[in-house]
Amino acid sequence: TPLSHIRNFSIVAHIDHGKSTLADRLIQMTDTVAERDMKDQLLDSMDIERERGITIKANTVRIDYTADDGQQYVLNLIDTPGHVDFSYEVSRSMRAVEGSLLVVDSTQGVEAQTLANVYQAIEADHELIPVLNKIDLPASDLDRVAEQIEEVIGIDASGAIPVSAKTGQGIRETLQAIVDHLPAPTGDRDAPLKAMLVDSKYDPYLGVVVLVRIMDGVLKKGDKIRMMQTGATYGVDRIGVFRPAMTVVDELGPGEIGFITASIKQVRDTRVGDTITHEKKQCAEPLPGFKPSIPVVFCGLFPVDSSEFESLRDAIEKLALNDASFSFEMENSAALGFGFRCGFLGLLHLEVIRDRIEREYDIELITTAPSVVYHVYMKDGSMEELHNPADMPDLTLVDHVEEPRIKATILVPDDFLGDVLKLCQDRRGIQEDLTYAGSRAMVVYDLPLNEVVFDFYDRLKSVTKGYASFDYEITGYRQDNLVKMQLLVNDEPVDALSMMVHRDRAEMRGRAMCEKLKGLIPRHMFKIPIQAAIGGKVIARETLSAMRKDVTAKCYGGDATRKKKLLEKQKAGKKKMRQFGKVDIPQEAFISALKMD
Ligand code: GDP
Ligand code: MG
């Protein structure tokens, strides 16, 4: 295909504004997929993505479109993960295309993720086509939303296309606008091969399938290629495009988007953003902006039933095959036995992996408190990265501790602004900006990541009745008065409940955790002290009194079956507990104890 007849684009949108439905409609309207093979959310392949409405891997589809001028155009859509945890991946996908459809739900308006994603598109020099979706709904307000796009994003929205991805209205106009308004890609067919590794996924039959965008040169089957960042070389087995089913082609030239397979064993061997070139005739320089992906949130995953450790290892290894940004190493906890310390790009990433282990591999897990990575500066001048609060070095050896900070952007209707400011203030936030767009406020806060990873988003949703939207990026590290707080149950430290806290907030957090645990741990035959301590000094204490009555005592009249049932129920409840010294602690305590409310 000549460059002039190629258009490459992505779709940026806030979650639920209709990105997947619009993609389905574009595919359907161009007969890319036979009617009988059409299903909803065609590009979101994994079940869990479909359920949560999130896309983790970039997906792509090549659409053939006959334009108003009667000519055939090739439209390549890259659908990118829409969540903050994957912003680097999004930025690479954006670099692989020349323009974006900016989809805004015309009943809702611009949201925090619309902004975050559109800034990425603007940074990648995209031409933008505003699309106002859901015009079939009575609450649709085109003028207001177009005005808001101009006001908040600062682009011309006079040519915005009114669309209903549901009924198909405006789809044809959208396809034509892609041809008319987005620039064709540029590139030199005779130059040495320069291609971007946009994403990769593991296929059980083909091995690793790599999504590529060719910048210069031509890629053919049998070519010897080199990945410039990792230095690895491979022979290309297969070249193709996604329609969206994999379809083999002879070659990929400049401006084209497709896939290659090259006997690559694991996704870990590929790096998003790497530059692919020919081994013999290399391009002069790799593409700019490459970053290795680094996990920012860590937690321990332990099997509830310790005999499932090997199954857990197997599950984690399989998941890691397809996810280069998920890291793990074995961990041995005094209280929880053998498990894994795992690193994730963010909380959502953590939840997705945890859910998949529980659901697809049927292993019940204890998840320890998520922790960010602290930089611990020692008195001898060295620095240690702390991934697990349980490993915090002795305080006498520590000079100071730095924690990661974020820039959080929150969009919220006026009515809830006060609650949002209070929440951010409570989490050690520093307000950086407050502006209004219509009846909505946009607040920007500098916050410690540590205060956000656990339940910030849940709290934000609950104080704003679901009306706020939130987005963040990590900005750097800053020193603060941070200490390790330990929880002692029956005088024994439970390392899985250790956490780093700000000194000023330690008493409050400690008291809250002791109270929570008191409510979560069942009574035993003896009295159990529950304490929070910093460096051996107890800062909060609760006592769980001993059980007085036999649980079956109230089953008077000797109803044997009822008594049996009750005991069985108690036994089943026990299964989800782990023993710490002489005390049984239920699985959910590890997460619940850390929630603040
Ligand atoms: P995404 O999260 O941006 O991918 O959004 P989806 O495409 O999954 O759409 C979110 C919800 O909005 C789904 O329930 C869709 O059926 C619905 N939806 C999408 N487009 C339209 C539309 O044009 N009109 C109406 N009424 N509903 C729509
Ligand atoms: Mg979607």
From TrEMBL:
GO cellular component assignments: plasma membrane
Residues annotated to bind GTP: D16, H17, G18, K19, S20, T21, N133, K134, I135, D136
MF terms (GO), sorted A to Z: GTP binding; GTPase activity; guanosine tetraphosphate binding; ribosome binding; translation elongation factor activity
InterPro entries assigned: EF-4, EFG_III/V, EFG_V-like, EFTu-like_2, G_TR_CS, LepA_C_sf, LepA_CTD, LepA_IV
A Gene Ontology biological process term: positive regulation of translation
Top-level EC class: hydrolase
Catalytic activity reported: GTP + H2O = GDP + phosphate + H(+)
Key words of the record: Cell membrane, Elongation factor, GTP-binding, Hydrolase, Membrane, Nucleotide-binding, Protein biosynthesis
Family statement: Belongs to the TRAFAC class translation factor GTPase superfamily. Classic translation factor GTPase family. LepA subfamily.
PANTHER family cross-referenced by the UniProt entry: TRANSLATION FACTOR GUF1 HOMOLOG, CHLOROPLASTIC, TRANSLATION FACTOR GUF1-RELATED
NCBIfam families referenced in this protein's UniProt entry, alphabetically: lepA (TIGR01393), small_GTP (TIGR00231)
Protein's name according to its UniProt entry: Elongation factor 4
Organism of derivation: Roseovarius bejariae
Species classification: Bacteria, Pseudomonadati, Pseudomonadota, Alphaproteobacteria, Rhodobacterales
Gene name in the database record: lepA
